[in-house]
Specification:
about 700 residues, 28 helices, alpha/beta, about 15% strand, single chain, seven-stranded parallel beta sheet
């Protein structure tokens, strides 16, 4: 029998970063291997383990929660005492073998169990690794360590321990390291890779979400937009408001007793003021509810509201409760998840252990692999992407995440003081973003002159050019035209026409491209498809459909997807009769003539293209294998993608414009923060291609 490839990640101390490291490893694996399982032989209780629940949901693993562990700590202790672990290891081996028959790779989580080690007289994680015949990675919590020598000694201890135990050690992760020691760790040379991750305040600090999930605290204001902001300090609001404001610190959670309404008002207003640091939230004690007067003030001003929490406990017991809350990377911790991804890109080169983990080249493109490559290629582009709608909370939150992931450079259009004020009130860090004020900058006169030069043959006079350049989308497009930025993302509050019209007039299409069109990347369960055209061309002619097909195939290739193009219709092959089917048939012939190297076939029904096509068209290169689907008109295309997005819970990224000389992408006005982040990454990749 061929044993599944596996890896055991061992943590010997609390807060070592188990989720962080396994996230990095599984993220790398999921782009290569479709069927992965997580397995934790021994858990603290038979209730669903928090780590296992997180990994199964975050990576959308196919396994059930019950298959992810074998025993709890009490049962394991009894079995070790009875027969020295014979039954324990039989259960572990049996459960592991069940997983190995079903999954291509198993990540095993091993945590320190001093009680079990004492009963056995040896390391139980190493004993499990030996019996399962799998290699290990060790996690080291270096928080508080100030000496490279001590870390080096512990590295040597772990290497020698693994050799004595006959366990293959693939690498050691030194986590929560003092940043001043990074260079020293990188200079340590051993036979195995040593990975160093610095202590990062936002990861080692609990968040509002952690408090809500780990305690009986309730969230009062459900409209709070940023609940995953880090809490750097807990402080009781007992002093006078004036003294409190003078001593405010960024990231504070203010614990307020029932008679201190003034502190609540002061914190809300100060949080919105750029003259004060942003607080993380307010905790009301002793069943205290927010007074109606405060609700009226918040509603009238429309200022971003900090999270307001409530507990039945008195102030002292509330403080004791908060001290027990541990920082956690949860499913809703969007900013921490983005930060983890950025950490692995900056500090960890998993290629040093990848050769063991990956046996074969991946086939096809799955959604997780697509996202992984999308973000990696965006980072490699080193592009500068301009976002126009800096007044929109979603845009600011997306920029915060993009910067945490280190996807690209970001430029925002707007007034710097207003952006700083709003981002501070939302608890966001946009300090790395550049801000351009379209009404006060060194470019406006240059843009007016150039636009007048470009459009005067269309009847535009200089006074009109001045008014047009004052519009944000036109100003942004001139930034792109002159190369001050590499791409534009707009549409969160602007229409598609407002987004597309300026680049059509100024940037124009690529040489040989007569039709500007759009595609959506549709991330299905196990594949990625391209849908075109879902946003721009209402009722394209046969010639236009052919151009859309070729442009979409080129886009697929640009993003690592083999272009296999199906020209969709209500009928397949020659069976359909009617004007629309004839138009698709003609478009197919034109596209095949213009791009003979691309697999393009049609007319073809949707199901034939992606699933059941082989029995209908046995010799087809496209049927059942299509990756690019070209719809006959905008009505069908838009309805289909939205139906799949809502009903099938597929992820739709787009619309992505294709055919322009420089990338300018449109957002749906109902876009989410994730949609904006993905569009930023795609625009960054397109910008690199446009410079070739």
């Amino acid at each position: 029998m061929i044993r599944a490839k596996s890896l055991m990640v061992i943590s010997r101390a609390p807060q070592s970063g188990m989720r962080l490291v396994i996230m990095g490893i599984m993220g790398m694996l999921k782009q290569e291997v479709l069927d992965i399982a997580i397995y934790k032989p021994i858990v603290n209780s038979l209730k669903m383990d928090r780590d296992l629940e997180f990994f199964i949901k975050y990576f959308k693993l196919k396994q059930s929660g019950n298959s992810a562990f074998s025993l709890n700590l009490d049962i394991a202790s009894k079995l070790l005492a009875i027969d020295s672990g014979k039954e324990l290891f039989n259960r572990v081996l049996n459960d592991y073998e069940k997983l190995s028959r079903r999954y291509s790779f198993i990540v095993v989580e091993g945590k320190s169990n001093p009680k079990l080690d004492d009963i056995m007289g040896e390391d139980i994680n190493f004993e499990i690794a030996k019996r399962l015949q799998i290699p290990t990675i060790e996690l080291v919590n270096a928080k508080g360590v100030t000496s490279i020598t001590k870390i080096q000694e512990y590295i040597d201890y772990l290497i020698n321990l693994s050799k004595r135990s006959n366990v293959r050690l693939l690498g050691i992760f030194i986590n929560r390291l003092n940043p001043k020691l990074l260079s020293g760790i990188n200079s340590i040379k051993r036979s195995i890779p040593i990975f160093a991750i610095p202590e990062i305040r936002d990861l080692s600090s609990p968040s509002i979400l952690d408090i809500i999930s780990q305690t009986d605290v309730k969230l009062i204001n459900q409209s709070s937009v940023v609940l995953d902001r880090a809490i750097y300090k807990v402080r009781i609001g007992t002093m006078q408001l004036r003294n409190y404001l003078e001593s405010m610190e960024s990231g504070e959670l203010i614990v307020v007793s029932k008679d201190r309404f003034d502190i609540i008002i002061g914190a809300l207003v100060a949080n919105y003021s750029k003259n004060y640091p942003a607080v993380a939230g307010v905790l009301l004690t002793e069943k205290m509810a927010t007074p109606s007067e405060i609700d009226k003030i918040i509603e009238a001003t429309g200022i971003p509201v900090i999270p307001i929490l409530s507990t039945d406990r008195d102030t002292q017991s509330a403080i004791e409760m908060l001290q027990k809350v541990s920082p956690e990377i949860g499913l809703e911790s969007i900013r921490k998840l983005a930060l983890v991804e950025g950490i692995f890109i900056q500090h960890i080169d998993l290629n040093r252990i990848k050769m063991y983990l990956i046996a074969d080249e991946p086939k096809g493109m799955n959604p997780i692999r697509f996202k992984y490559q999308l973000y990696n290629r965006a980072r490699e582009s080193k592009s500068n992407i301009l976002l126009i709608e800096s007044e929109d909370d979603r845009v600011l939150r997306a920029v915060d995440i993009a910067l945490r992931r280190d996807l690209c450079k970001i430029t925002l259009l707007g007034k710097k003081d207003k952006i700083e004020q709003k981002s501070g009130a939302l608890g966001l860090d946009l300090s790395k973003a550049k801000v351009i004020d379209q009404h006060n900058n060194p470019y406006t006169e240059q843009f007016i002159n150039k636009f007048y030069e470009l459009r005067r043959d269309k009847g535009v006079v200089r006074a009109v050019a001045k008014d047009i350049i004052a519009q944000p989308n036109y100003f942004a497009t001139m930034m792109l035209f002159f190369g001050y930025v590499d791409g534009i993302v707009s549409g969160a509050t602007h229409t598609t026409r407002e987004t597309i019209k300026p680049p059509l007039e100024i940037i124009k299409g690529k040489d040989g491209v007569e039709v500007i069109s759009s595609i959506f990347f549709m991330l299905m369960n196990s594949r990625v498809l391209l849908f075109g055209d879902c946003a721009v061309n209402v009722n394209p002619t046969a010639e236009e459909l052919a151009q859309i097909a070729i442009s979409s195939a080129e886009t697929a290739k640009e993003f690592g997807i083999e272009p296999i193009v199906a020209m969709l219709s209500y009928s397949t092959s020659c069976t359909g009769i009617g004007r629309d089917s004839d138009r698709v048939r003609e478009a197919t012939k034109i596209a095949q003539r213009l791009a003979p190297e691309i697999a393009i076939e049609g007319p073809m029904q949707y199901d034939v293209a992606i699933d059941s096509g082989k029995h209908k068209i046995p010799n087809s290169r496209v049927a059942g294998r299509a990756t690019v689907l070209i719809f006959p008109d905008l009505n069908i295309a838009n309805s289909t993608y939205k139906g799949l997005q809502r009903g099938n819970k597929s992820v739709a990224i787009g619309p992505i414009l294709q055919g322009l000389k420089r990338p300018c992408n449109d957002l749906s006005r109902g876009c989410s923060v994730d949609d904006i982040v993905d569009t930023i990454a795609i625009t960054a990749i397109q910008s690199k291609s446009s410079h070739r």
